[in-house]
Amino acid sequence: MKAKLCYVALLALLILPAGCAPTASAPPTQTAAPPPTPTAQPQATPTSVAPATIVSEMVSRLNAGDVEGSLAYFAEDAMGYIVGLPPTGMEVYAGKEQIRALWEDSVANHFQWETVIKGSERGLVYVAAKTWHDFTRQIGVAPLEWVDVYEVQNDKIVTYATTITAEALARLKPALAEAMGEDEGAPPSTDQPVSELAVTFAGGTCATDAPLALRTGEIQVTMDIQDQDNMLYALTMFNLEAGKDLPDLMASTVGSPPDWADMLLMEELGPGHRETYQFAVEEGPVYMVCWSQPPELAVGSAGPFMVVP
What we know:
Helix content is 18%, strand content 39%. By secondary structure, it is of the alpha+beta class. The longest helix has 15 residues, at 166-180.
């Protein structure tokens, strides 16, 4: 797979000794096909408290059931991302108020969070995490393992992203199917297939208004970057091997690129730009993943797009 963007490989940090103090290390490449590192490097935002300390104290407050105390460490416009969970593979929380709803639900379900700081540099903090929640206890999969990254500016968390590990997802999916009954799957799409789609990056995520059906052949896709907060944005499109789905793809956005994903498109743009690209589709389904940096992470997804001759 062609990798033009040098994304942070959070997973490799997990081989560092547990319990080590935050270190300034360059975490390795992030995955499922992320886009190229820009030449200009982001400047660290001055803070009066070490970013790793802010993350650790935020976690301690939530573990103690102190929702407001934990939220005090977040900026008002902070973005939260939970990556890899079924059924959609992506949950986005825009702003402290949306994160508050998640935190309140967590405390109500006796959530506990075990974290180990694996690295910290330039306001970014990398964490290996385990979580317990009443539901995951009930279905017998607690704890679940995660790879987390935080961006801290001016003593506030502005980005929080947590990605379930592929191993944890492999335990979770059959337990969910048993607890909730067999999923009959989505009904066949009745959308009229198209050969054009537009993907808009706005509000810290991405979206497309195209139907979930594409025609075989050349597809024209327009990237419209309305966000201005990050240095670089990217769009990738994939075919997956049989038996793999969108949660699998999103869980693979940390670690080594999976050998079961075939990248059909990878394009990148800076903030405020709009460009149109082409890629070829021979078979479906097709899956879309959006990225931004810094921090280097998946910020949105869509699919499966059915492919119609």
